[in-house]
Amino acid sequence: MDGARRSTDASDEQEPKRPCLAVAGGRNGGAGGAGGSDAGDDDSHGDAGGGGGDAGGGGGVGHAADDPPPTLSTLGDDVLRAILSRLESSRQTVRMCVLSRSWRHLWRSVPSIHIDRREFGSDHELQSFTDFLLDHHNNLVLLDAFRLLLSSQDLRLPASDWVRRVINQDDTPPHQLKRLHLCNVHLDMDFASHISDDRCPALEDVRLENCSYLTARYEITSFSLKKLVVDGLYMVQDDESDDDEDEIFKLIIRAPALVSLRLAGELDHIVDINEPHTVPSLVDASVHLPVMTDEELNNVEENDATAHQSVLGVLLNVTTLTLSHCRLLFQPEDSVELQLLVFQNLRTLFLDECYIVGEDFVGLKPYLQKSPNLEKLILRCSKVQPGYSLNWYFGDDLVDFMCENLMLTQIIYQHDDDAAPLLVAFLLSISRSLPNNKIELIRVE
């Protein structure tokens, strides 16, 4: 503990040196000067830093009972790089490296880059810092994580260049990148090919948030990808189209190892329902649609039901399914789409603020009927589609299926929620189909 306190005190003494960080980060356009300064110090301080790392590494193997415990200054470079890579941003990483003379070049070889617009006072400051960071990183091919979070698309041109520099270097060996998170980035037409197995064979986690696209057809093909989040899709202009109107973005997924999938956006934008998707390993999926107004609900067309069913058809193998702001439409028993939907593996179904057709909630019935192994049902702030009931279709007998494995239904509601008692009444009316079901009411503010 004494060593740890001494290390902290030493850090405090180094605080006056922090202004040099602004130069290294490119503040006020000084990135180039900082780069020259670092290059000039490589011979004089680089070896010393490496020696300190080796010595620290040797000391880290073990120590006698009467020896002081290891401190940050005695840790090896590999351990320090692992610690630095877990900081929230690359700016914090650079700041940490100025605390010790032997650490001053470690940021160049940290295997992760995290850029967050919220940490910078201006776009110019962010651009200068990021340009400098990428220019002086020892080996971008060895990155295992790249995160670029922008607050708007004002930096879309330099951001596209940064993404290309990280994942599109044709004259280099395949990248070791495992995690890629992009927010408010303008992606070019070749982006999907850049994250394919040829360029990024180790890629496991991709998150695209509020990104825009230059093509209407994106096919993500990866044998290594395990987690995919595509959140907030935009309509795009397809340069190859003769139509003056914007094309609608559609996603095609061919990822045999994909385990987790989150899709958010307009229903028509989420996935291409006319193309086959390859997701045999998928176990956890969520679909989040925008909140609809009453007018939009009343104008929902029948083909939206078909599109909804087709999107769900991509997710048939999942064990956990979350649907947010979806419209659970009533489907006749002879509906082709309904007959094809069977969630054989589904164990947990979470319906978050979904619109359920019919005051008697008959729109929920097909989801129970087509999930024979469902164990847990969660209904959060469900909304009733008002104006009509579908009892006329079934008459008095709504019980023509069995869901014996359903053990718990949680109804999460607010104090002014009119749907909660209707949901309870519906579940009780089909209790013969749910012989083991327990209803739990949870009130939230």
Architecture overview:
This is F-box domain-containing protein. Residues 1-74 are annotated as: Disordered. InterPro entries: F-box-like_dom_sf, F-box_SCFL_complex_component, LRR_dom_sf. Residues 26-38, 47-62 have a biased composition (Gly residues). There is one protein chain. This protein is of the alpha/beta class and 445 residues long. Helices cover 30% and strands 19% of the residues. It is built from 14 helices and 19 strands. The chain has helices at residues 2-13, 19-24, 31-59, 77-84, 90-97, 123-136, 156-167, 191-194, 294-298, 302-313, 336-340, 365-369, 391-394, 419-429; strands at 112-116, 145-149, 179-183, 186-187, 205-209, 212-213, 217-221, 227-231, 250-254, 260-264, 284-288, 320-324, 327-328, 348-352, 355-357, 376-380, 383-385, 408-413, 438-443. The strands form 4 sheets. It has a 12-stranded parallel sheet, covered by helices on one side. Strand 18, helix 14 and strand 19 (438-443) form a beta-alpha-beta unit. Helix 6 (123-136) packs parallel to helix 7.
Write a concise synopsis of the structure shown.
This protein has 14 helices and 19 strands. With 445 residues, the chain is an alpha/beta fold. Among the domains are: 1-60 and 73-109, no CATH class; 283-445.
- Shape, please? elongated
Report the β-strand fraction as a percent range.
Answer: 15-25%
Tell me the helix content: 25-40%
**SS-based structural class?**
alpha/beta
Q: Kindly, what is the distance between the CA atoms of the first and last residues, rounded to a whole number of angstroms?
A: 45 Å
In DSSP terms, counting alpha (H) and pi (I) runs of 4 or more, how many helices?
14
Strand order of the largest sheet: 1-2-3-5-8-10-11-12-14-16-18-19
Protein name: F-box domain-containing protein
Biased composition (Gly residues): 26-38, 47-62
Biased composition (Basic and acidic residues): 1-18
Region (Disordered): 1-74
